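Please predict the structure of the following assembly.
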Amino acid sequence: MTPAPDPVSLTAPICALLIALVPLVLAGLVLINTGFGRARGAAYAMLSSLTAMAIAAATYCLCGFSWEGFTGLPASMFSLGGKPWDWIAKEPFFLRGLTSSPSRAALAVFLQLLLVSIAALIPVSTGADRWKLRSICISTALFAGWTYPLFAHWVWGGGWLAQLGRNFGLGNGFLDPGGAGTAQVLGGLFALSLAWTLGPRRGKYRADRPPAAIPGHNMVYVLFGCVLIVPGWIGLNAAGAILFAGAAIPSIALIAVNTMLSASTSYLVAVLVTRVRFGKPDASLCANGWVGGLVASSAICCFVTPIVAMVVGVVAGALVMAAAEVLEVRLKVDDPGGAISVHVVAGVWGLLAAGVYAHIPTAPGSFLSGGQRVSGQLLAQVVGIATLVGIMLPMIHGLNWVLNRVDPQRVTRHGEQMGMDMHELGGGAYPEFVMHSED
Amino acid sequence: MRLMGLLLLPAGWIIVISSMLLFPQAALRWTFALAGVCIEAAGLALAFLGGRDTKDAAE
């Protein structure tokens, strides 16, 4: 009789397979970004998304992992208040510190290359129809080469946020298994800074008038992107939970169920709210609700029961709807794809929910049988969120401000009127849209 | 206005971090951390309102 395979020996290949699903998240986000933009900028939206992904991956490989590192790898520390503060990794450039063996660090690099690309795609949606390609390249390189790795080290590389539990007795330290804070909120804050830097699209806000609706040109792209994104997100949450939270293989089922339930309930709330509010469901806001539920699930996926995941999804959906309206109407932030409300608001809620509801497993593999509440976890989550808003947002906006002073990031008025496809690429995505006379 | 808001953000963060270093008791820690979070919230509000004023003037 053949003995059953050892579950530990299966972890690496299963984790690699889960990570191989994550590019579906990228594909979904690219479709969503494109669908939410105008028809005259559709090809540019696709190309700029691909460019952002490529720059992010290359820069992360060049120097990003050097600053981020992984738990157990060399890092720089200083002492404050009698406690060690691990603030940055000390790995060599170009991933030279990694061996060819399938270690956890190598798998983490595989996942991080995709996660940093996901984070870099978020602001592309916000800058739709007005963000220059050159500026996308430079901003993304700074983000993937410095901002993202720094925060990711604090959370996933054994940095000071991860050690809040050991050093200050705050639960298990800052919990973020699927990247709700590290990828989603950080990318969303980059999007917020970009919206401030670029300003609204022309014609969006006029004096004494409500904001003009500039609908996305292809809701089919957006909604298909929402479907495509789900298996990728399950892979992302499961791989992240295994690599960064120590989840075991049997917990993958729970993570998949929680991810799906959070997205579903968030989406249903969006359908209900828009149906009551506008008389009919609004496709773009419903898509935002779906993605918002997925974002929130990234923080809680392996720590809660399915019923809690549904509650988290319901609240995420309601928050995303409210935030989208407040940002557009009251605060006059022009965010064509709703990236800020989806990624920042839902992500922050998910992180807080992890502090409130998380049950940390008491033994490896006990995820399905539940765990125990840990005191101080909520404060650890609050410290992590305060760091995102209090340090990372000013840092991102400072870099964006300097870049914008050196080389304005917004296209000219003429370029905006012409459309990004013609201005940046010299040709449109849909040439058959051009009107011809009969002769 | 936005600059003021963005300066308040790290100020609030420093208070949050100080709460962990200075107070081992949970109640005091929470009080100071929430004070820091409130300052960050005020900074964020100022940053948003600053942007809104600029756009009104531009349009």
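The mean pLDDT of chain A is 92. Chain A is about 65% helix and 5% strand.
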